[in-house]
Design brief:
Blueprint (H helix, E strand, L loop, with lengths): L1 H9 L3 H6 L2 E2 L5 H6 L7 H25 L3 H21 L8 E2 L3 H23 L6 H18 L4 H26 L4 H9 L2 H17 L5 E2 L2 E2 L2 H20 L6 H8 L6
Antiparallel strand pairs: 1-2, 3-4
């Protein structure tokens, strides 16, 4: 459905599509919602469609394997309802005389769901919950990587990169200590690390992050909005993490017995 909306809007005249873009100087709730579905070039459209198919395909595979599709479908609903307006309005935090459009910010919100989806898959395969500090460690590691490799060097970027690494070590170290207290933890983690679904999921996550935060952001008169990419990614991760941690849709502890039948070693 999402792709159908994007393609239908792309079939409109360019002048109509431009009126649906989000102008920072004249913002409105209507264009805040429509702008993420607008693309002015076939290359831009193809790129965002490819990213959406890749992230949603990985997402669906993880959800299907653990038979808990709520995260996948709730992410798609959010991509159609909440994320477009939220990301457009958050763009106003960086004032400039320009317009914004394109689905990349929403795509990055879906990418933010991936670490949690991978964590839930690992939980199901192991038959017991994982320490969610590992999810936070993965997120802060990615934040540090973005600050170090994708953002022009500055004191702020260095501070963010250092803070991200510090938080990664703190959350990761605490989670590892908790895991080592569990029986057969190392064997179960070795099995997870060699699982093809986990490998593909993590590879997709890393690939999409590298694509979303290029070192060269200005081409052919347009600028890649790395700010909205990061905000979308952070918003998606925190939404998925809180829903997972607070057990908003299902009880993780009760589910571990059922999902454990999927196999663990």
């Amino acid at each position: 459905m999402i792709m159908s909306i994007i393609i239908i809007i792309f079939s409109l005249s360019e002048s109509t599509r431009r009126t649906l873009s989000f102008a920072y100087a004249e913002p409105s709730l209507w264009t805040a919602y429509t702008a993420p579905f607008v693309h002015l070039s076939a290359a831009h459209l193809a790129g965002n469609v490819a990213v959406f198919l890749l992230v949603s395909g990985a997402f669906y595979a993880l959800s299907r394997h653990v038979r808990t599709p709520w995260l996948f479908f709730s992410a798609l609903v959010a991509a159609l309802s909440i994320f477009p307006v939220t990301l457009s309005l958050l763009n106003l935090a960086v004032p400039r005389d320009a317009v914004t459009y394109g689905f990349s910010g929403v795509n990055m919100a879906l990418v933010g769901f991936l670490p949690v989806a991978i964590g839930r898959y690992i939980e199901a395969k192991r038959g017991r919950p994982i320490d969610t500090g590992l999810l936070l460690a993965a997120f802060f590691l990615s934040v540090s990587g973005i600050a170090i490799f994708a953002v022009p060097r500055s004191p702020l970027a260095s501070a963010v990169g250092t803070a991200g690494l510090t938080l990664c070590v703190l959350f990761g170290g605490s989670a590892v200590r908790q895991e080592l207290r569990l029986a057969d933890s190392r064997g179960r983690w070795r099995a997870s690390a060699s699982d093809p679904v986990v490998i593909v999921g993590i590879g997709t996550w890393i690939l999409l992050l590298a694509t979303a935060f290029p070192q060269t952001v200005a081409t052919d008169g347009s600028v890649t909005n790395v700010y909205v990419h990061f905000v979308g990614y952070a918003l998606g991760f925190m939404t998925a993490y809180l829903a997972h941690e607070w057990k908003l849709f299902e009880n993780r502890v009760e589910k571990r017995v059922d999902t454990g039948r999927l196999g663990s070693s």
